[in-house]
Design brief:
25% of the residues lie in helices and 24% in strands. The strands form five sheets. Strands 3-5-1-12-9-10-11 form a seven-stranded mixed sheet, with helices on both faces.
């Protein structure tokens, strides 16, 4: 149970975040968002803004420098007059102070030629198409057997449609950049991101630089949840503005502007058809997904992919259909794909259990498998059943009355629910160095990112073990693009990917040590790309089970989660203290998904209406009364030197379904459109 190695720095304020870095003669940028949902910028009147004392520059499409091409069209800042969605950045003002820049941005007058935006996702939209792939490289569609015939001939059938709304990542630290052009033409960026190496490579392409001419510094990051996994317009705007005024520029995206410019989880419409025999064994699974992307860039969330992993059935089909709308670009949000996909699948499994008259845990056990159903690959390890059994015992599942709406405490209706969880065990290639210092300490460097997950602490533990050294002898330095290239903090692959590179570098260093360390020190490096390519073929996934007990006010429809338990099988847990924190954080997000999170689109003008944390509700302490997470011991020799699987996202996967299933058990009302609000419940009481 190791405390965070940087804990003291954070609680004493010594840990610097992007906006806090000092810079001499610094200026500030403020962005202007499009007020129309689709069209073009016809004219920009800068006179009033430039008259304001302290205004240094106004940037928009007519005077902005030309940028190099990258795959993400959201980064083509001010490159054309086109407006693709309401809230898109169309201009920026640079001022001596932040207040000056924001006031000048308000004074900027922009005229538009306006078109009617198309902003509503629907399953019959004429623009729906099959994407070439879904995130990151999965096929959009898969099919085995005869799913239509098998479903029709099944003794027990469920045919239901679920919807999930757009949801927004809301990290505590906003998207922030301090950009500084140096006298030698190089660029230094203090930036809040999930991968300094990725930001370095992208920004270099945009500004026509060699990657070595761009340094990205981000040792401390105040959250991301996927929204900082790739560069966002803030880093481009800051660098562009700094070059225009010849001074360092700071730009932090205000919370209200983040809702349009930094990504979100796409809304989904999902039709699930499950067919089973009288004993509940699945014959057919059909999972059809409809979701949106923008006209600026394609992002196709892999919503149906967990259905390809979870349960055996000889006849199966999954499909994704996408439509380009005049909306901001969706992107990664914690466990993209798996989170909405497993909500639908695990809700449908609950409905199937009721239809078949089988306990929901027993139904899942009967459909367990030792091979990935679609690929046929053996699982490197799969302890879903162990999670279900352990969770049932700890949660007190035995003796549960399966009938919904029968347990009451005064005006409160009480119910319990269960759902399974899964997430891939990714391991991206990475590089690292390990250095022995003359004073007997060790320094490990890798351009990894700690976005609050405890990654720095986990890597320190991994390095100390590999070096056979005490923890206080090891210093791990991360968050700098000048360090060995690292993958992004995403896909729950950080500990596995970064950790493997650290282990290999430390092993190489130990092989070099022979007595005393020379005055200049000793250094070894590692690159795990070849090792990863040579891995044996296994299906590598983490699994879990989520349990929830809710109370529903019979008069108001208000739902409270009384208690929640998650049990996970995620390989070796490197640091139990921070691991438990990650699991509980994910489960808390699942409560938000189930009961309150919803980004509301203005159907007429475009743009999200609830653009702050007063209107976009996330769980607070009062919403999380009793929540616990634990894990089963799992030894898996087919993963990595540590034997670990990712844990950052699986805590969220399945959580919303567990809450939704508990609400149904409490009330007898099945709400298939998230979030489960009092209004949606009361309409069906």
């Amino acid at each position: 149970m190791t405390d965070r190695v940087e804990g003291r720095e954070k609680v004493t304020g010594q840990a610097k975040y992007a906006f806090e870095y000092p810079a001499e003669d610094v200026a500030y940028a403020a962005a202007v968002q499009a007020s129309v949902g689709k069209g073009e910028v016809a004219a920009v009147d800068t006179e009033a803004a430039l008259r304001l004392p302290g205004v240094l520059a106004v940037l928009f499409w007519e005077n902005a420098p030309k940028l190099g091409e990258v795959s993400d069209g959201e980064l083509a800042l001010f490159q054309s007059p086109k407006v693709s969605y309401r809230g898109q950045f169309v201009a920026a003002v640079v001022g001596e102070t932040l207040e000056t820049a924001r006031e000048a941005a308000r004074l900027l007058h922009i005229e538009y030629t306006e078109e009617t935006p198309d902003v509503r996702l629907r399953a019959d939209h004429p623009g729906l198409y099959k994407p070439a792939k879904v995130n990151p490289v999965f096929p959009a569609d898969t099919e085995q057997g005869e799913p239509e015939d098998a479903f029709r001939d099944s003794a027990v059938r469920v045919d239901v449609t679920y919807t999930t709304p757009a949801e927004h990542n809301n990290p505590m630290e906003p998207h922030t950049t301090l950009a500084q052009w140096n006298d030698d033409g190089t660029l230094t960026l203090y930036d809040s991101n999930q991968g300094a190496s990725t930001v370095q490579a992208t920004v270099a392409k945009l500004f026509g630089l060699d990657p070595a001419q761009v340094r990205v510094v981000s040792p401390h990051v105040g959250g991301g949840f996927g929204s900082k996994g790739t560069p966002r317009p803030n880093v481009v705007l800051a660098a562009m503005a700094a070059r225009a005024v010849g001074r360092p520029v700071k730009f932090a995206v205000p919370r209200q502007q983040m809702f349009a410019t930094t990504g979100y989880r796409t809304p989904t419409i999902q039709r699930l058809r499950l067919g089973a025999d009288e004993d509940g064994r699945l014959n057919a699974i059909v999972h059809e997904v409809f979701e949106q992307t923008s006209t600026v860039r394609e992002f196709a969330e892999q919503t149906a992919t967990p259905t390809r992993v979870m349960y055996q059935a000889p006849h199966r089909r999954t499909s994704h259909r996408l439509v380009r709308l005049d909306v901001p670009s969706p992107s990664w949000m914690r466990a993209p794909g798996e989170t909405p996909g497993m909500y639908a699948l695990e809700s449908a499994m609950d409905e199937l259990a009721i239809a078949a008259g089988i306990d929901p845990i027993e139904l899942r056990v009967r459909n367990d498998t030792d091979r990935e159903p679609e690929s046929g690959l053996p699982f490197s390890s799969r302890n879903l059943v162990a999670c279900l059994r352990e969770g049932a015992d700890r949660f007190g599942w035995a003796g549960r009355d399966p009938a919904p709406g029968v347990r009451r405490e005064g005006r409160k209706l009480i119910g319990t629910g269960v759902a399974a969880s899964t997430y891939p065990a990714y391991m991206p290639p990475n590089k690292a160095t390990a250095r022995a210092e003359p004073d007997g300490t060790f320094t490990v460097r890798i351009a990894a990112a700690d976005i609050g997950t405890g990654a720095r602490t986990a890597l320190t533990l991994i390095a100390a073990e590999a070096l056979k050294a005490d923890l206080d002898q090891v210093r791990v330095e991360i968050g700098d693009s000048s360090f060995p290239k690292a993958s992004v903090a995403g896909g729950s692959g950080g500990t596995a990917g970064w950790g493997t590179a650290v282990v290999r570098a430390c092993e190489a260093l130990r092989g070099m040590l022979n007595g005393s360390v020379p005055p200049e020190g000793l250094e070894a490096s590692a690159d795990t790309a070849e090792e990863i390519r040579a891995r044996e073929k296994y299906a590598r996934h983490a699994f879990g089970a989520q349990f929830a007990e809710v109370e529903v006010d019979a008069d108001t429809g208000e739902v409270r989660v009384r208690r929640m338990l998650g049990v996970f099988a995620a390989g070796r847990i490197i640091n139990p203290k921070t691991a438990r924190s990650q699991f509980i954080g994910g489960m808390t997000m699942g409560i938000g998904m189930a009961l309150m999170e919803e980004s509301v689109m203005d159907a007429e003008f475009g743009g999200y209406l609830n653009r702050d944390l007063a209107q976009y509700h996330v769980p607070a302490c009062a919403d999380v009364r009793d929540i616990d997470a634990t894990w089963v011991e799992e030894s898996d020799p087919h993963l990595n030197p540590m034997g670990s699987k990712g844990i950052g996202e699986i805590g969220l996967v399945g959580a919303a379904a567990a809450v939704g299933n508990a609400v149904h058990h409490a009330t007898g009302v099945r709400v298939r459109d998230l979030p489960i609000t009092p209004a949606r419940l009361l309409d069906n009481f």
